[in-house]
Amino acid sequence: FAELHAAVPGLPLASSRVLPGIVLRRDFAAYCPADGELRALLVTEPLRPALTAPGVEFVVDSEGQYQASLRWISKRTEDLMKHLQSNNIKLLLSSAKQEEVVIYYAKLYGVSLVECLSSEEMSLISEITGVSPCAPFVDNRDREITEAAAVTFCQPLLLASRRCVHIGLSSACAFQPHCLVLCGPAGGVNEQHAAAVQGALTMLQQLCKAVDQ
């Protein structure tokens, strides 16, 4: 329930509504409008390539070597975004904070990016879509990316003064996610309303289980 409702203080209760899909309570790091169904990739690690393997020290002896390293990182990141674009990946959902070079090339190649998702949000998206997070940075650029989720829409959503991300997911199971936008004049009132709604849903769930049995 925590990931499927958004409390919006400062608005009347009558402004509450149910939206298809899920609402992520953060803004896009990069937003590139795209029409029709698109493919999304779930990632849990920074996409900026590392210069060395873990535990290996990388020594730069000159300014020239440092600049060459930055160019290598930039080129590898651009190659990744080209690879995503060629596989029709238009959305990255990341639990990790991504660096500016990743955001720059995501915008350049038309890939929207949402970062710093919680583990609960990532788990919910994986459960709905049946797709697990992956590490898309591969040396073989000819390999097709198959670990992608189908997204029916992806757009910004303004809740009061807060910018959020609203996405529709093609479910791999019977569960069709909807998000409750619960408005109220103050935070305390919103919490009371949210607790009441959650209690009612729990009661209905228990009632349905009893009927099934």
Automatic annotation (TrEMBL):
<dbReference type="InterPro" id="IPR027410">
    <property type="entry name" value="TCP-1-like_intermed_sf"/>
</dbReference>
<dbReference type="InterPro" id="IPR042619">
    <property type="entry name" value="BBS10"/>
</dbReference>
<protein>
    <submittedName>
        <fullName>BBS10 protein</fullName>
    </submittedName>
</protein>
<dbReference type="GO" id="GO:0051131">
    <property type="term" value="P:chaperone-mediated protein complex assembly"/>
</dbReference>
<dbReference type="InterPro" id="IPR027409">
    <property type="entry name" value="GroEL-like_apical_dom_sf"/>
</dbReference>
